[in-house]
Amino acid sequence: IPASACCPLIMTAVTTTRSTPLILAGMALERYISICFPLHYSHICTVTRTMWIIGVIFLLSFTPPLTDLFITVAKEPPRFFHASIFCDHSLLFRDRSIYYKNCVFDIVYFSFVFLTLLYTYCKIMLTARAASTDLVSAKKARNTVLLHGVQLLLCMLAFVVPSMQAPLIQLFPMYSLEIRYVNFLLVYIIPRFLSPMIYGFRDEKFRKYWLRYFVSKAHK
């Protein structure tokens, strides 16, 4: 497709992918506040502040692809945006400086999210040990933060797998489409599929009906 048509698709995909770890960090902070500061929870976690956080997450997630576009517009000739290309991030934003910029951003980005999850998990653990009541809520919050850590590892596939794509395509050029397809499944589909399934299975009502459905299917 034309590069100009590919651009909004890639930018949307990158923005939604990069927003996921930040959302996990925000959810972990929410659990941390609810357990460690229960009396102030309703005053801290307000709708207005939530909307502000959503806006900040969107801004931080949209900044990298936006700068990629600016660099590409500055360095590529105008005819490039009318040429037909395979719609892939590395083929659309092909300047080498974009690669190094994104590497630095990813290091800072994931370090911040990882430290946030680690800090909230440790604080929740300490609070759970010190508390004599409401241990169930603290345990659930701890497990939730652990789940966020697992999801963060899944999100990291979006940054690890693509770096393996180019060498694999060079080794097996006849399977380039298949490699890109598997990469798409690993990066975009599987993490987004597992997250709602895991959260749904943790819900008691959903789990009850889910198990009932599979049991009924097994007996048919």
TrEMBL record:
GO cellular component, one term: membrane
Subcellular location(s) of the protein: Membrane
InterPro entries: GPCR1_Superfamily_Member, GPCR_Rhodpsn, GPCR_Rhodpsn_7TM
CDD domains (UniProt xref): 7tm_classA_rhodopsin-like
Pfam family, one: 7tm_1
Residues annotated as transmembrane: 51-71, 98-122, 143-161, 181-201
Keywords recorded for this protein, A-Z: Membrane, Transmembrane, Transmembrane helix
G-protein coupled receptors family 1 profile domain ranges (all copies): 1-199
Protein's recorded name: G-protein coupled receptors family 1 profile domain-containing protein
